[in-house]
Amino acid sequence: MHQTRTVSEYLTLLQAWVYEHFPTLCGDCCRLSASYVEDYPRALKWKPKRDKGLVLPFRKALDEIDVDEVCWTPYEDHRLKRPFEDVSLFRGWIRWGPKMYAHLPDRVLRQYGHVQTILGSPLEIVGQTTTPDEMDIMFTQYVVHVVDVGTVV
Q: Residue 44 region, left (φ>0) first, then alpha (ψ -120 to 50), else beta?
């Protein structure tokens, strides 16, 4: 958003996600780390440049990106070291302390190598009235709440 002046939260994770999913944007804003090996956390793969003048060109490049320039499965090489776990397909509320988040992996099935479908409202999927105790029980029984992934691409 043009009027936004600051961003908070864990920006290293956001940056690494952007570099992985939009590789054509990385030429001007980061470089690959020569010392990275797949045993390391994925965010260590990238060495961002520390140039504040990149914001406007970066925004322009992001606005003009084509769907074919998006990497939908960026972690395939990394899966040998960090295998995909079925719990990642859990659909429902998760919480960290007092904060609650709707986890909706069916909205990003393409990133998991499946056909993406059009979905309804997130509140229809996970409900609005789940209590923290119910959340904990649902997550411990995550197999019951795993997304039906359907067709593999």
A: alpha
**pLDDT tens readout for residues 99-144:** 777 788 888 887 777 787 777 776 665 666 677 788 788 778 877 7
Paired tokens of 50: 């520390």
Question: CA 44, 112, 11: angle at the middle one, nearest 5?
Answer: 35
Residues recorded for the chain:
153
Identify the DSSP state of 152: B
Fill in the DSSP letter of residue 74: T
The answer to whether 61 and 25 are in contact (CB under 8 A) is yes
Nearest to 12 by CA among 35, 49, 43, 34: 43
pLDDT tens per residue, range 128-138: 667 778 878 87
